[in-house]
Write a structure and sequence with these properties.
six-stranded mixed beta sheet; Dihydrodipicolinate Reductase, domain 2; alpha/beta; Rossmann fold; 23% strand; 13 helices; globular
Length: 332
């Protein structure tokens, strides 16, 4: 039995999803010869540390009842630097202005000799190559499947299953909120403001939906794809972005009559990065509805490969994090 110790830094929806996934998969993992133990959990109010393994059920209950996992005042940085473990799961909220606190957590993890698995887009959209090179220099894994597409395995597909192929271009729908809004506007002929309000009431859209509807979230994800797959050194400021706020039901109706739908499409091709509403044929692989995400990858050998699935949700995102953890366990 191989004992693997991890920390979960950030215990919001994604961090809790990771904890629940580890609980539900504990027997499965043991059958694979893996004893996965969480030895540190940190949120914005404090932390819990147990080098023998935290009682995850108690931690989740405490978070639900008290709003924090804290049983001590030690910080995330204390856990990363001082607690002996193998993998840091960095799941703090995305900050696109300076990447913090995730960026500092990741830098310290790599300096401390710990592998990183993350769902945090901010540090990767601003300092992707720095983090990648620091991991390589220290002989560590830096895994980030959960940053783009929720449960959709874009990076695993390209870097592993399609290894040997040259990726010519990628286009996709990477924001479930925008896709839901456009789908509802098209199907129900409802105005943007009304559908946005509905999406907020359902929890699909944030109270402040700017990042989503202005295309910023999609641009951040496209940058991570471009840097990871095409080896660019871009930030979200390098993306030509147009959001969905100006789209009218009349425009969608006109598209529908001509057998098209309107989608917020991200595209990376020949070093050019764009996020903009586009007409998509109804039978095209990108014409997915609701909150679905999709990525269509054009390669020189395999041709076009298209994958779609749930692009958000705590358990769906945790699926990608658990996949990355197991990749590290099996390859380190």
């Amino acid at each position: 039995m191989k004992t693997v110790k991890i920390s979960i830094i950030g215990f919001g929806a994604v961090g809790q999803g990771v904890a629940r996934s580890i609980l539900s998969k504990r027997e499965y993992l043991k059958k694979q010869g893996i004893d996965l133990r969480v030895v540190g959990i940190s949120d914005s109010k404090g932390s819990e540390i147990n080098t023998e393994g935290i009682d995850i059920e108690n931690a989740l209950l405490r978070k639900k009842q008290k709003g924090s996992v804290a049983v001590g005042t030690r910080s995330a940085l204390d856990i990363i630097a001082d607690v002996e473990h193998d993998i840091v799961v960095e799941a703090t909220p995305t900050n696109i202005n300076n990447g913090e606190p995730g960026l500092g957590n990741m830098r310290l993890a790599l300096k401390s000799g710990k592998h990183i698995v993350t769902s945090n887009k901010g540090p990767l959209a601003l300092h992707f190559n720095e983090l990648k090179e620091a991991a390589q220099d220290n002989g560590l894994f830096f895994r980030y499947e959960a940053t783009v597409g929720g449960a959709v395995p874009i990076f695993n597909l390209v870097h592993e299953a399609l290894a040997g192929n040259r990726v010519v271009g990628i286009e996709g729908i990477l924001n479930g909120t925008c896709n839901y809004i456009l789908t509802r506007m098209s199907e129900e002929r409802m105005p943007y403001d009304l559908v946005l309000k509905e999406a907020q009431e359902l929890g699909i859209a944030e109270t402040d939906p700017t990042y989503d509807v202005e295309g910023i979230d999609s641009a951040i994800k496209l940058v991570i794809i471009a840097n990871s797959i095409f080896g660019l050194d871009s930030t979200y400021r390098d993306v030509d972005v147009t959001g969905i706020t100006k789209i009218t039901p009349e425009a969608l109706e006109l598209a529908n009559r001509n057998n098209y739908v309107v989608k917020l499409v991200c595209e990376a091709r020949e070093g050019k990065l764009t996020v903009a509403p586009r007409l998509v044929l109804k039978r095209h692989p990108l014409a997915v509805g609701g909150t679905q995400n999709v990525a269509s990858i054009l390669t020189d050998l395999a041709g076009r490969i298209t994958i779609s699935g749930k692009g958000a949700g705590s358990i769906e995102t945790a699926s990608s994090i658990l996949s990355d953890i197991l990749y590290i366990v099996r390859n380190s």
